[in-house]
Amino acid sequence: MSPLSVLRDAWFFSSHNLAAIARLTLPLLLLEAIAQALLASQLGAGANPAYGILLGILFYPLYAGPLILFLHARSNGQTPGNAQLFAAGLQLWPSFALLAGFSTLAIMLGLSLFIVPGIWVMVRLAFAELLLVLRQEPPLRALQGSFAMTEGRFWPVLTCLLNVLLPLWLLDWWTVPEPSDTLLWVLQQSASGFLQLFAIVVLFRLFMLLEGQQPAPESND
Predict the structure, then answer these.
(1) Distances (CA, A) of 161 to 31, 113, 206
(2) Count of CB atoms within 10 A of residue 11's CB?
(3) Alpha helix stretches (DSSP H) within 150-218
């Protein structure tokens, strides 16, 4: 499992399905950015950042779930419509939002201890969302399953994630406008969120590779 080949395959898929991914996710990313801007204007500059994090947890499953379903469908040669994907994603929203809350809390707790524990938790929970959406696992079982899938594979997963997220985090930090410029801020946050969805494509590719490495169930015959 070469991180370079995973990134190359994910980039190939994303570049060939860019328009479809944009139609599926950008409207909700834009709506989330507008909601974040409205929340910031209502609460003021000294507001607790937990409100913004909570809003993100509520919005994230609305586009991440359909995106994962889209990736799975396209990998099987299917082309479901956006309405079908959104309907399936909405059914998963309660459990997905709960999982996102658990994951965010665990990662933030790790980061509060030191940076390294937070990164370790992020990597070990990398496949939880995919397990919840694709295998219909409940949140706690999805978290446990992600720990099992990443056992002994920490460094390849970390390498893939850092190669994607670190440049995008730096780009987001470098390009973020002043909060007073609301329109530009909304557009920048929407674009940044869209680019960071590439991490889901990379993790999906990793997930499929690891699924293929799972031993087949023994026959009783």
Answers:
(1) 26, 21, 11
(2) 15
(3) 154-175, 182-196, 198-213
Low-confidence ranges of the chain (pLDDT < 50): 216-221
CA distance 79 to 53: 33
Q: Which residue has the tokens 């524990």?
A: 117
Tokens 């293929």 -> residue: 212
> How high is the pLDDT of residue 216?
46
For residue 216, what is the enclosing H or E element?
none
Per-residue pLDDT tens digits for 120-162: 999 999 999 999 999 999 999 999 999 999 998 999 999 999 9
Taking the model in full, what pTM does it have? Answer: 0.92
Query: Which pairs count as long-range contacts for 40-49, CB under 8 Å and 24+ apart, including other chains?
Result: 40/179, 41/182, 45/179
The C-alpha atoms of residue 160 and residue 177 are separated, in whole angstroms, by 28
| Cα separation, 125 vs 159, whole angstroms | 15
Amino acid at 218: E
